[in-house]
Protein 1
Amino acid sequence: MTWTRAFREVLRSGLKIEETRLEPLLALRTAVGVALVIGPALWLGSPAYAASAALGAFSAGGATFQRTWRPRKAIALGAGAGLALSTLVGYLAAGQLVTFLPLLALWTFGAGLAWAVGSTAGIIAATTVGSMLVTITLPTSVGRALEHAGIIALGGVVQAVLILLFPIRRWGAHRDALADALAAVADYARRLRHDPTARFDPEPLMTARDAAAVTPSQARTRPTVLHGPRGLAERIVPAIAALADPDVGAPAEGPGRDRARELLDAAADVLDAAARSIRRGTPVEVPPKTVDLLRGDEEHEVLEGPARQAAERLAALLGEALEIAECGNAHRRTPAQHGPAYVQFLVRPTMFRLLPVIVRAVRRELHHDSPVFRHAVRLAAVATLGYLIADRLPLGHGYWAPIASVMVMRPDFHRTYARAVARLAGTLVGVVLATGVVRTLGPDAHVFGALAVVSAGLSYTLIRTGYAYSQCFTAAYVVFLLGMGGQAWEQTVPERMVLTLLGGALAMLAYAVFPAWETPRLPERLADWLAANGRYAAAVLRNYAGPTRERRADMRSAQLASRKARAAWQEAYDRAKQEPVRPRGLTSREAEEAQEALKGFDRAATLMENRVPQDDNPFALEAEGLAKALETDTAQAAADMREHREPDWGRVEKALQVWEGAGARRPALRREADLQKRALEDLATAVSRTPLERDVGSVREEQRVREAMEAEGGGSEPAHRGG
């Protein structure tokens, strides 16, 4: 993608309206928290105290809207504590540039590294930088700084208390994650009716699994309905895939295929009904006709062999899902359980035990090629440079430039540039509108305080609609706070616009100078996914040769590792498509073909998983040799791909020949093994082009891009070669 086209995509993304469900009750509760600290601070203190209180309550409230599975009140308390600490530490070092600049650089570097823990931690850490830059201008002594820090922390406490006293859709995010997973499996069942070899994207199941991890205290209050359906969804996926596949399941045409389509449609209806029930907490409503279709008529059943086994297994799993959904929506909680033998939930570390996890996550990112490490370096450099430049300009409120940079910067190119555009547009509109209101109403601290609360509520309401639209009301909120403090708009509005533009420009320039492109890393991500897929396929095959409890656990662990590698590839691939960088190692066409090949390989392993023996009796001893060959060849092929060598599947071919020579036992399993071999051959075809072919493909790809842009009326320019 050229820079011109990349900028066009950035503009479109930055100003895009996201079609997400609004949460006005959550926004109202959080805005009330802001009002509860602004009002008393104005009445009992001063506008300066009210500004500190408003910052703490607003930032802590905004943190609770981030995507996280921890309790919202814990997030509010943590955000309030971080804001208070940054304010106090910043004030102690704010006397001289020689002391404050190193602190600012160190603090922003740490805020950048917080992305190693997750996006929520990174965003909250960025808000603490803003608190350090703004509120250190308010106190006049160490004692006053302590008071302001306490008031800021109080804002987080107020938000946490409101969450505790007025819960809204408790466990709602967890219910949504589980319901989305079931709905995704339902959609997959419907797609299989028309495309029997369709691929399944496991991302919703991964999200549901992440949501299922809870602390011991959460486990004691989690609704029963959030326990079993996720595991059932995991088992339903291979069952419907095996039923639909024409090679190992229902025949491609005839009454058997019609019966398979009926079952798939019924499965989709049941899963959708269970998803609605879990999401809303209402009874399950399934049409009687759907239940009759699942039961079938044994005397006139047209499915035979593996297809019939898959149909029976699917009906049993769906019945279990309905039973859990019906029982789980009663107002019951998980009984308290003690001892390691009774731990039946995925453990999430408590806030007090999170430190070692954070340390390990950060240490993994402390290398030059890490996107998180590069983001931390950019953040520290831009914050200090922006502060220095703004301090030398004949403008007040110089902290707005580094704040704008810190709040828009992300570890990847597209989001950084899109947020910079969105922040500038939102700030411009918000400041102009709020300024007009300030000039019309005249100085009145109480009126401006009320308007600040209203702006905060609107910002919260639109926080998931689009950054530009939320930022519009955030900018208005800041203008009203300044008006509440008695500062003339002429001294703030022009400065804010100029400094916001400066901060956004610095953020965009920093990424261009010190990027963290994903495009050059695509071959490595693909190799990681191949190796993980090979281990998963081998683990499935070993359960046929010697099924044991330990091997079933290894299979599940390998499956999770494969999904994690697939998610890492998908994220890198999606980012690479938005980067103005010429493909290196893999062209877009090669990457797409390789991705489809590995999805096919993963699908074959999923089909195998459907009939894995549940007892300890060997099912197919010949599968052990193929398992070893698959694991060895995929690991070696992954290493070859990193070194740009052609992969070789010699061991796999030899193992299949040995299997064939032993007799045609387990034909369904043998056909699934052939599907895996075919997928590996497709992968080799995708990545085994010569350098000349790759260069020609890259040139043709750029030519197609230029022609498409010319057809749209746009220009073109040489692709960036940075790395």
Protein 2
Amino acid sequence: MARTPTTILHLLLFTLCILSTQTTSSSASSDINGFLSCLSINIPPSLIQTPSSNSYSSLLLSTVQNLRYTLPGPTRPLVIVAANETTHVQTTVVCGRRHGVHIRTRSGGHDYEGLSYASVEHKHFAMLDLAKLRSIHVDAIRAEAWVGSGATLGELYYAAAAANQTFGFPAGNCPTVGVGGHLSGGGFGALSRKYGLSADNVIDAVVVDAQGRLLNRSTMGKDLFWAIRGGGGESFGVVVSWKVRLVAVPETVTVFGIRRGKNESAVELITKWQAIAPSLPRDLYLRVLIQNQQATFVSLFLGRCSQLVDTMGAHFPELGMTEKDCQEMSWVKSTVFFFFGTADMPAEVLLDRRSQNYYLKVKSDHVEEPMPRGAWESLWSEWLEKPEAALVMLDPYGGRMASISPSATPFPHRNYLYQLQFYSFWFENGTVALDSRLSWIRGVYKFVEPYVSKNPRAVYVNYRDLDLGTNEVEGNVTSYAKARVWGEKYFKGNFKRLAAVKSKVDPEDFFRNEQSIPPLPSSRW
């Protein structure tokens, strides 16, 4: 993010001003009226919404993706601050500490368990909505970009390609996901086997810490910079912008989508896919989607169709891929293809921040040894043919993913073969629908237990799952011992280091939610 000397001076003076008057305790009971008065000193009233405001509901629901958290039950924000300047973020944090109001941050609203905008344990909080902090500045000479946390992945892809058709960025396949949450959890996508995670390509960031200070990579220190690149959002501060390294993609890439039913050897092909997909050349990403009794093999290849035909013939001839399956296009159009299933749409659709809303529950796993064919046969016949089944997604690791140390960032799952996700989504409201869908997905999760990662059963933090456990507060801070139950599933051996960082940068546990990182007790050092 380009900053003029005048802008930098303004931010420094603002930081000194608010820090000189803040109190240091966050243990006092919430004073919502005092919090609102404090906010109003530096934030325009139009950006502050309470439940009595006319625009509160529309703002709250503007980026809610999972309708389960619009139902009665979860607690909604006491206040929503629609920040459009970094100083608004600083003010919200400082006022929150002063008046005992905890802050949650939302960028794109895709959190599977809605923790950026709802509390399932009835905790009172205010929400920072970062959707207006969405500027993107591309430095085409250095192949770098500053990206606001409120930007979407689609907006980043579009801006990169607009600067140079050979610029790409390794991140997720859903263009409406917010950059802030995605990078905070690591960020996996179609280019990750070639270039690593999104977090592996972050080179700087601007963070508002629990004191309201504005920090960058040189001032936050290496530990906090490590933690924000994969340690999950909302635990260490508010990242308002990210400096990322853009990666090289060819002017022409190739995609395909090949469907096979169960009577067309789908189970045999999936069984074979497990053995070859993680070891394919790094220029080739081949995922599997199982939906409506069909397995769809979807590929991105960083090269021409003729090369892809040769590569698939050498590594996976059983799929029967031919030139007629190929579609050649620019990399940015391939991101359209991966989300919409077609490239017959302009790249401008990546700028549409709207997405379809539904009721959702997701569970995920990592696989370290191929599941036997018999297990896939049983999974398909016993679970995937049920009406509650919605989508199963298999994403290969390997390549650059496997060559980076599991401790290089908080994301520890680099050495698995692939990632496995089970989706249940539905559109009808009601207890019966909810109960049947949850029963299905939890049943599937139990069924695959013998075949997936163990000790711990590994889960990607960007696919948050409250079934793994939730935090408990002891002595006004989150219990480290209780948080380990879910935390080591997300972070394995990196969890303790994340807690140690938390104890340094936010020892009073101001930034907290049902699965935030707890401070590490001094006895554990």
